[in-house]
Amino acid sequence: MRTALTILRKDLRLELRTLETVPAMALFTLTTFVIFHFALNRAALEGQLAAGVLTATVLFAAMLGVNRLFVAEREQGGFDAFLLAPVDRTALLLAKAAALAIFLVVLEVIALPAFALLLLGPSLGRPLPGMVVVLVLADLGFAVIGTLVSAIAVHTRARDLIGPIVGLPLLIPALIATARAAGPLLAAHGPSAPPGKWLAVLALYDLVFALIAYGVFDFVIEE
Amino acid sequence: MAEAPAIELRELSRHFGERPALENVSVRVPAGATLAVLGRNGAGKSTLLRILATLLRHHSGELRLFGEPLPRRAFAVRARVGLLAHEPLLYRDLSGRENLRYHAELYGVPFERVEELLQTVEMRPRSDDPVRLLSRGMVQRIAICRAVLHRPELLLLDEPKANLDPAAAELVEPLIGRASGCTRVLTSHDPQAALAEADLVLALDEGRTAYVGAPAGLAGERVKEIYA
Fold first, then answer.
1. Of A13, A40, B33, B196, which shows the fewest CB atoms inside 10 Å?
2. Contacts of A14 in chain B (CB under 8 A)
3. What is the ipTM of this complex?
4. Single pTM value for the model
């Protein structure tokens, strides 16, 4: 855990200094909302449609983060430096997944108000606590799968393509569960708590892929 | 019981696809000795260093570091090995001090050691500058600090004096030179300098052993053949 915190601190410091990932993800998200605003030609969205637009946009923005997750490691020798150290290799999985999850949370802090302003019909105030729970569970799944896929892609020549090609199909169950959990919350007179069934699906998805990632990560990062 | 050699390679081979990078290489390096690895570009020198650093697995043969078989017991020797590679293995947007502190945390080394090393290589005045703003020689000095931060017993040095002027080369001598007391594996494109430092020489030609033995056994003409 200490090693993972060391790597996470380094990654956050690098992002704060270079601002290469989160601003790109935020700009992509805002642009996509504007595109949806005009392309759908609707004054406001609600319910399942709103949830689908929000979830898909965040997922695609997450892929930008996934593609950049190991860039410094690949281009500046961070991988070799880490592999030389006498530390547990899963610390890298933990740190990178935590970094991506933090990037996603920051993105959503920007994206949710923008979504409410540009696209969402009903007020965001009432469903906000439920949305936070749904998005946190979704972020965990996106972060674990994203880190695993990014670690696989970084050793390949077509690394920028591998992320979306491998990552998006793996993330479809998380996308479905997130959109279904968020749909009722974003309806005009919907409940204020998300449906338990879809939260359970998301949580189970996160757990299964976290265990798979933990099991295979050592092999993935070795040359 | 006799002390295990620091490095023991028996019939070690590694290939990349169909192309052999190392073929049946054997050598024993006693603790505290310096092995110079000579050869042209692509002879297999860097591959050998990466295998010794536990970054790459060999495909056949046997490799032991400090008596521990690799790759099975790689975790047991990593803290005893320091690698100075072609690339400095430093983050360009972090300062030299931040990079060294990051590595110190990975190795469980106190930050005082970072300051001591920065002092030794006379980099304290520029230690808070991002690495991308430093000259190549300065980056090499920080990279040397990184390689020796955890006081390794085995130093793997790929062109260690590259980009260093004579004064800087003298500064790093106590850290990576014979005076460090470490077992060293040294590659260099300057064979005379490498031979002068070596107790043993391994010359590679397209991954095969062209010569292994004492430096005295390599006459000038033979060295020229190796680099021909």
1. B196
2. 91, 93-94
3. 0.88
4. 0.90
